[in-house]
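Pasting as-is:
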Amino acid sequence: MSKVLVTGAGGQLGRELMDAFGPAGAVGLDHAALDVADREHVLQAVGAVRPTTIVHAAAWTDVDGCQLDPDRAYQVNALGTRHVAEAARLVGARVVYISTDYVFDGMANRPYNEWDAPNPLSVYGHSKLGGEAELSGEDTVVRTSWVCGRHGRNFAKTVLGRARAGEALRVVDDQYGCPTFADDLAAMVRRLAVARLPGVYHVTNQGVTNWYGFACDIVAAAGLDPAQVTPICSGELDPPRPAPRPHYAVLDNAALRLSGVPLLPDYHESLERLVEASSRSGPHGP
């Protein structure tokens, strides 16, 4: 790999991707430097860098925001990916696109593999699936779920901060998935990019839980009392969320497993690492 371009390099995954590829291994463009919704801007930026691989991590991931503003969701997540794919073709680059478990409806009550038919419930899921449709068979789609880590805002950091402040937490217990830690995910994305593996891959940390169970794990890992966390059902959220969520969006990492690629570690291991790092950076985490 001679040159990698990372879009969305200022986000929680983008920053880990830059670390994974190393300072000499990638050119990172955050939203201020590259608005993927602007076709001319994308063509110019990619033409200037002339990468061999584009890791397309830029996205609008506010699920409820997407539901309330579908045009912006499709402009960034679907049309923006079209622009990136077009620019990649012009310079002969491959695209590694970061997608989501929300392309599934969660009705199967079993893990989804890469060959299951998507059926999104939300605008966010539809717009990300639209992005997948813009890619060629030579490109790579990495679907992931429940991403958290050291950077940006995410569920794990929010729970840690509130628990350390002694606040009570009410968390839904009827949505199941696989937590994924951004540094682990970035390492796997780099592996797939270097190996130039095409097609769809589900990439998550191992272990299935619901949001309530995950919150209890986070609180316990910080040495606090999980009794701070109270389970509720999605219907009890006040105010209710605009976007529907899949009930069981567990991703089976079948393509990795069947290809003989070692899977990411159990999410509890990575959670311990995150909590330890947050303890070193202050009483309320990073």
